[in-house]
Amino acid sequence: MKPIVAILMGSDSDLEVMNETAGMLENFDIPYEMKVLSAHRSPDDVVRFVKQAKSRGFRVFICGAGGAAHLAGVVAANTTLPVIGIPINSSALGGLDSLLATVQMPAGTPVATVAIGKGGARNAALLACQMLALQNPKLEKKLEGFKRNLAASIRKKNVQFQQKRRS
Ligand code: RP5
């Protein structure tokens, strides 16, 4: 199947976090392509990839970067496809720097920024699925099932919690 989500990361050191995105997309059978591309260290390659993405069939970008995290912003500047940014907690500042760099885009160039680190990486995949599901009823059904399972897992936790409190 041709990839429809592009997962981009600023360095291979971001892979542990970005694998959470990939795993979640696999749960929903969404084909993706993963690449290491840096806004600072390989800027020409970023722009070349982004410019060709729509005609290659990509529908959403998910970009993770740490430190002065400009990857998602540079991607967003060069496409009309939706861009989701994941702030990676790779620097001495624990990801707060990446969060601010990713989220504080000027008006006109949106990046949908999720939480720092692995939780954000999973949510980025879910958000991409929700975008794709607007034109894919089968995917919409899978997302509804996912939500039901989430609720069931919390109900189970609550039952266990109440039992522990009583004992
Ligand atoms: C960022 O700098 C990358 O996204 C990564 O989070 C961080 C560190 O990169 P490396 O020095 O490990 O290549 O651009």
Describe the overall structure.
- It is built from 6 helices and 5 strands, in the order E-H-E-H-E-H-E-H-E-H-H.
- It is an alpha/beta fold and 167 residues long.
- A 5-stranded parallel β-sheet has the order 2-1-3-4-5, with helices on both faces.
- Strand 1 (5-9), helix 1 (15-27) and strand 2 form a beta-alpha-beta unit.
- The model has no long low-confidence stretch (mean pLDDT 98).
- 5-O-phosphono-beta-D-ribofuranose is lined by residues 10-11, 13-14, 38, 65-67, 88, 90.
Chart the SSEs and their pairings.
Layout: E1 5-9, H1 15-27, E2 32-36, H2 43-53, E3 60-66, H3 71-77, E4 83-88, H4 96-103, E5 112-113, H5 118-133, H6 137-166
Parallel strand pairs: 1-2, 1-3, 3-4, 4-5
Helix pairs in contact: 1-5, 5-6
Radius of gyration: 17 Å
Query: What do the pLDDT scores average to?
Result: 98
Largest sheet: 5 strands, parallel
Cofactors, ions, other ligands: 5-O-phosphono-beta-D-ribofuranose
Please indicate the percent range of residues in DSSP E strands (runs of 2 or more).
5-15%
Shape: globular
Strand order across the biggest sheet?
2-1-3-4-5
Content-based structural category: alpha/beta
Unreliable segments of 5+ consecutive residues: none
Quantity of strands, as a count: 5
Q: What is the overall number of helices?
A: 6
